[in-house]
Predict the 3D structure of the following.
Amino acid sequence: NMKKIILIGGSGILGRYYAEKLSLNYQVHVADIGLKKKKIKKNRFNYYLDIQQEKKVDNFFKKLKKEHGSFDILINNAAYTTEMAFKNKKFKKKDFFSTEVWDRTINTNLKGSFLACKYFVKYHHKKQKDQRVINIGTIYGLRSPHHEIYQNQKFFSSISYSSSKAGLVGMTRWLATKFAKENTFFNIIS
């Protein structure tokens, strides 16, 4: 019986790698704002999803349950980064206090992961089945960046990115202690 994985965030560098490698041995359903709905190969399905929108996240998890049954693993990998922010030509390196970037980052990296966890538990949680939720964090959720290493780069580690990932650490710890007795294990990789 092949394990089924929901991978949120599958069009970036890490997401594409995870989707490719995991689909070799598992059934992988990849959702991302940068993807279109289609079957890629036998074990791999892509979906368009904006995880900032709660109703869309709710519908996505509900539909997956209806069409494919319960899932074993959720991987929260979606992230809004400064590389993405720079695609908006108005955004400059000195704009580290940009409220627009803050909102988009928190809504994607933290609220989006929260919503994915919320609806994974609502539709796919089975109390005595071994299930995993893996949140993708960063060292910057625990330590501050060395700002000087970004001086000659086209990107940097934003205050909102560090804050969102630090929030993810707290959220993961809370969920881990809440659901461990029910065999749903929440972890974070940094």
